[in-house]
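Translate structure to sequence.
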């Protein structure tokens, strides 16, 4: 039987044999990846808060480590950083909400004026529409909304039903974040014990390198988002566009979704400017957003993001597309940080000398911090 099998093997060309060997191995890898994604999808309520907590820990852990190195108790450092972060975020949200409440009546008044001006132009302008035609169009829109009121109400109720999940996810994120900041390294040491003894250290080094890359990505993204929000928010405030600060906050949050988020946030700002101030101000707002995006794409991204983590733009686009298909907005938000983590972790896993690769990446991170400090010094001098 063995000789018969060997005869059949010899009859198959070597190229086909290699292709078959690669094919079943790739199918096994794809099946494993699909199974992992299916499990993560089923446990989305748990996986997403843990992922968000990991990203937040990448943003906060440098401050915790700094206080720890200065002799502060680890628990006290975690509490101080968390309370400071909550105070800052809460203060900003309170200020933004108050500005929204203050600016909303002005926006409604200006939008009403714009609608009246548009109606007058449609009647007296080149279109020469009658008032009855315009009123019928408005009544049709109102009737369409009333006809779909049941769907809108059910959608609102389904949204309200997710409030419990949101609160649960927020509490789980906070709880996980505390433990990540306090003893994340020990947790990773414990988790890696499931791997064989011969590869445990390599896996630990890979996780450490991936987390360092995640820290660099989050720090760079935060800086880019802050510059975008300040630039666009200042321009909107100078032009007198209502809700300038809330729109700047939307721009800041949107910048955490590369390529896509900034475009959507900018489009929202243009729409508000169009409704509130007219076509000319909308064009000026569009020009302002394009200028800020050009500054980000040609100066900030290569200067900051390029130093922090090297990811090809095609990989960014594909990661966002895949993340949005798998998990919607949350998937698009988490896609690029995941790629940044895996980019460094896989390099260490495949490196002939993992320790040397980790040391090289940490040296690059030190150069990034030094270069960013030099850039800040240059900016202050200017």
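Result:
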């Amino acid at each position: 039987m063995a000789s018969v099998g060997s005869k059949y093997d010899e009859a198959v060309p070597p190229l086909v044999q290699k292709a078959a060997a690669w094919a079943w191995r790739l199918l096994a890898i794809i099946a494993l990846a699909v199974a992992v994604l299916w499990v993560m999808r089923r446990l989305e309520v748990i996986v997403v808060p843990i992922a968000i907590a990991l990203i937040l820990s990448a943003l906060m852990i440098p401050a915790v480590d700094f206080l720890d190195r200065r002799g502060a108790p680890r628990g006290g450092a975690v509490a101080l950083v968390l309370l400071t972060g909550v105070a800052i975020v809460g203060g900003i949200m309170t200020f933004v909400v108050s500005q929204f409440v203050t600016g909303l009546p002005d926006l409604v008044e200006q939008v009403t004026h714009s609608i009246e001006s548009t109606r007058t132009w449609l009647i007296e302008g080149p279109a020469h529409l009658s008032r009855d035609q315009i009123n019928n169009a408005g009544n049709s829109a109102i009737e369409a909304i009333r006809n779909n009121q049941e769907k809108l109400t059910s959608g609102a109720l389904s949204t309200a039903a997710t409030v419990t999940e949101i609160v649960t996810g927020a509490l789980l994120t906070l709880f996980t974040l505390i433990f990540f900041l306090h003893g994340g390294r020990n947790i990773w040491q414990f988790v890696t014990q499931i791997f064989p003894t011969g590869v445990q250290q390599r896996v630990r080094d890979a996780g450490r390198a991936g987390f360092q890359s995640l820290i660099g990505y989050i720090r760079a993204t935060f800086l880019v988002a802050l510059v975008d929000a300040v630039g666009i928010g200042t321009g909107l405030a100078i032009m007198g566009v209502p809700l300038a600060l809330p729109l700047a906050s939307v721009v800041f949050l949107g910048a955490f979704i590369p390529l896509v988020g900034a475009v959507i946030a900018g489009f929202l700002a243009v729409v508000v400017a169009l409704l509130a101030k007219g076509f000319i101000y909308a064009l000026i707002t569009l020009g302002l957003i394009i200028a800020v995006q050009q500054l980000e794409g040609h100066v900030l991204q290569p200067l900051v993001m390029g130093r922090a983590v090297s990811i090809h733009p095609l990989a960014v686009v594909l990661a966002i597309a895949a993340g949005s298909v798998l998990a919607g907005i949350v998937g698009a938000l988490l896609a690029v940080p995941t790629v940044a983590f895996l980019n460094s972790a896989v390099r260490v896993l495949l490196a002939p000398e993992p320790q040397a690769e980790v040391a090289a990446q940490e040296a690059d991170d030190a150069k990034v911090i030094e270069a960013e400090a030099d850039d800040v010094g240059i900016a202050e001098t200017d």
